[in-house]
Amino acid sequence: MSRRTTVLACLVSSTLLSIVAATPAAAASPRSEWDYVALGDSYSSGVGASGQSGLCLRSPNGYPGLWNAANDPASYRSVACGAATTDTLRASQLSALGSGTDLVTLTIGGNDVGFAPAVITCTVVGDSACAATVEAAMELLGTQLPDKLDATYDEIREHAPNALVVVLGYPILFDETAQTCGVGGMSIAKRKSLNSGAVELNQMIKARAQAAGFTFSDVTDEFAGHGICAASPWLHGLDLLSPTDSFHPNNSGYQYGYLPALDSALD
Description:
This protein has helices spanning 3-22, 42-45, 63-71, 86-92, 115-124, 127-143, 145-159, 188-211, 220-223, 251-266, and strands spanning 35-38, 75-78, 103-106, 164-168, 215-217. The chain is an alpha/beta fold and 267 residues long.
């Protein structure tokens, strides 16, 4: 064998070894053997779905519970909590992880930039005030969120060094075609402002998740045509009887939106 051939063989071998070493252990085992931990905020705890309970409003009909029921992993634990931020996730959720954790899923970041209050504000103010509110949230997104996400993803990797980590995005909330939309009358201009903010938020989360070596799953395609005020919405609009459900997925959103997005990320 020539020296050139020998060097090439060594390079190929070391590359293959690097790929194998970087592949999470879960990828080589059936899902029934996985230890699964769900982290994150209200979109991961299942707010908006039926069966919510406890201070964190966790529901078995959120996407983590649905995935657990469909795949029967060796263990499943959700520590996701409504209203969670990157700071509260790092302070109270990471202890659920360990070297034996095979799969981690999460949604996080929306509360850090105040996206939920922005939606509420836009419900009661005019178009220009709504646009300014979204712009303020996007300022936080550009100046503060990248470092917060990086720190969060770094600590997840430290606590779960062998896990496959799937970061899911947020749906585009509003249908933009309906002339009228919900309690308070969310104008088309306001819906477009909020939807554009959600697009920027998802882009940031995707960039930082991929930089950390995690898998990002965008749910935009799954929710297309099923925004608030669409003919068949998969999200709650403003709900005065159950205010915490407002602007969160309903049962259909978790089952037909988030669950398929997670499954596709794992295929």
